């Protein structure tokens, strides 16, 4: 099977999607984006074209669940493969409005699968999450570890994986790779693309960025009594450009896969654990100032430690992250400095 040339990227204006579009364009793919901008700005798409020095092959503002509109995108473009990022991703929100989360994340995926089947598109890379592992053990997680998702967001990702596995069993041409990312942070080195959450950030890196630029007074460190070396929770932070490259490699590998293979699942992480206080210190080094923080109680639902065993993807594809924590912090900070109001200015 030949390598895909035209790739449909759902959620291509979002954080990980936009970086992946840049990497795909840099490697001669034609890229078509579908996004409803429920959590992104159309300006991200302008920035993608600016970095790449050439335009996207198509931009379609629509909701994946609008099946007729989605199907027209497949009619208009000769799509070879799909990278499916579009989903809601806020854990707390998913607890508050679970129906909307299942509808968007699972319903968006089934609508996409129907359109792919109608148009005989048989290659799909799916955005899954380390959150499917739930309450992890105190050791790096392999893909064989059981899924024990603990909130509607994580359960929606796990449900999508199960739907995809079932559809692969039934539709023998379909090849699906599900990538479970750990904690993507960082930004494009140009400073033109990065993470631009709406409202007060919930995740640690965008929050740190706003403390460092003075818009928020201090970081609340959630929990200092975890069974970890410094008592704060440990995560596997991975540069978003490494994640983006992982998708391109996945597209190359999926093109090699013989038809009829079952869905494969891979972790994308570094295998390196970093505590919240280590991240605060690394970010302080990157921005050249101490970042104030206060110790707080644990955040409900958090686990002490989530670190990937990423050896499967290294062995099978040769994918290894090349960017360390200092680079992740430097790139995030550059984006923040050049875009204090995100994509708004
Ligand atoms: P993001 O919110 O920045 O990007 C998602 C994009 O999808 C947004 O542009 C949004 O407008 C769009 N979208 C959402 N629902 C849509 C719909 N129904 N139709 C069309 N467009 C829709 O999120 P991200 O951080 O880039 O995450 C991308 C994917 O990776 C998500 O599936 C997320 O669950 C997964 N993931 C993210 C992380 C993380 O920490 N960022 C970790 C693991 C997995
Ligand atoms: C990281 C660490 C917090 C904010 C999330 C999703 C998960 C996956 C990855 C999508 C934790 C601590 C945070 C703050 C803090 N995403 N923290 N103060 O929770 O590991 O994972 O992103 O699939 O599903 O849940 O990421 O950035 O929110 O937190 O101390 O203001 O930072 O307690 O230990 P998390 P995060």
What does this molecule look like?
Belongs to the NAD(P)-dependent epimerase/dehydratase family. Residues 8-331 form the NAD(P)-binding domain. It holds the Pfam family GDP_Man_Dehyd. Keywords: Carbohydrate metabolism, Isomerase, NAD. The protein is of the alpha/beta class and 345 residues long. It has one domain (6-344): 3-Layer(aba) Sandwich (Rossmann fold). The chain is 40% helix and 17% strand. It has helices at residues 15-26, 43-52, 67-76, 91-96, 98-118, 152-170, 204-212, 240-256, 276-287, 311-317, 325-338; strands at residues 6-10, 30-35, 58-61, 81-84, 123-129, 175-181, 183-185, 219-222, 234-235, 237-239, 264-268, 274-275, 293-296, 305-306. Strands 3-2-1-4-5-6-11 form a seven-stranded parallel sheet, sandwiched between helices. The protein has a three-stranded mixed sheet with strand order 12-9-14. 48% of the residues are buried. Nicotinamide-adenine-dinucleotide binds at residues 11, 13-17, 34-40, 63-65, 85-87, 89, 104, 108, 127, 129, 181, 183-184.
